[in-house]
Specification:
By secondary structure, this protein is mainly beta. Helices cover 11% and strands 29% of the residues. It contains three helices and 17 strands. Strands 4, 5, 7, 8, 9, 10, 11, 12 and 15 form a nine-stranded antiparallel beta sheet that branches. β1 and β2 form a beta hairpin. It is elongated. It comes from Desmophyllum pertusum. This is Apextrin C-terminal domain-containing protein. It holds the Pfam family ApeC.
Length: 329
Amino acid sequence: MENIGATAKVEGGYMGFSASLSASFDKFKKSKTDNTTFSENKVEFSSGGPDMPEPIRLGLMPIYNAINTLFFRKLDRRYQCGELAKRRNNVKTILKKYPRIKNVKKPEDPETRIPITWPLGTYGLPMPKSGCPHQTFWHEGTRLHDTENSGVPRNAWSDPYDLAGIIAKNDMEQKFCMKTKDRTSEYNLPWPTGQYCIFKKGNCPEGLETGSIKWDDEDDNNHDSLTGSLPDGEYTHDTKIYFCCRTDGHATNAIVLPTDSPFVLFKSNTHQCQYVKEMKVTSEYFYWDNEDDQHPNTDIRGQAPYAKEEGLNDADIRLDYCYYVKAED
């Protein structure tokens, strides 16, 4: 769900989930959305019959016309019926007493609230230092990049840098949180429109497109390694990882995702981080000093995260991250 605006808000735990989304009917009624047509209700009826002539015309009007003085005045002028005033008073009396006789209470808007869950699909997120989200369907994985060792190693990273894993001038770890189960709750919704990327695991979720980044890791005495659950990719003496990216919305239109723990997304084709409702975001990066040979294997293809090929022969990669924590009240 994107850009939920003023008629809905993120709230606390609900039905065993850590966060929820509720609708405000008061705000909805005051918004322009209140006039939106949601559906049609068609009713058919017949009038007249063999023993009752067909009326020339039927008119449908709201019930408040039945107690409107002007309405009865027009009828009286047209038909000169002395009983109209009496009938009007009878209708008013009936309408006034009927709710009390039937013990009718003023209706109240029902609570409209659903839990906020991680969207449908199988995919992965970069792991923050706090670890994966708390739900049991997340699985951890690690890819160690043996980056350039010759000369003066030039790996670099932002300050702050809130992603998990070892980082050094000549090595770095990417750590992953992988969701390998498509549906985890009856309340799962599709990923919303926006500007962001996630790791690919199986088919990209609906609305997201595929891209990839290839890192040209160290050639000499390479000690790349891997453990656990990983994104789709090719893990040899180099590293190629596939991504799923969305570019059909605006980063400044806040989307709704779980708020119970920190998480990380990638930027897509923009320098901006996707806004997330009730979350504060920090833009961070890591710069890989890849192999320095004359024929680098570094490559960025398709709908990949916002990244730059830099350094000697454009062999190095700078990749931007968006780190989210719950905003303070």
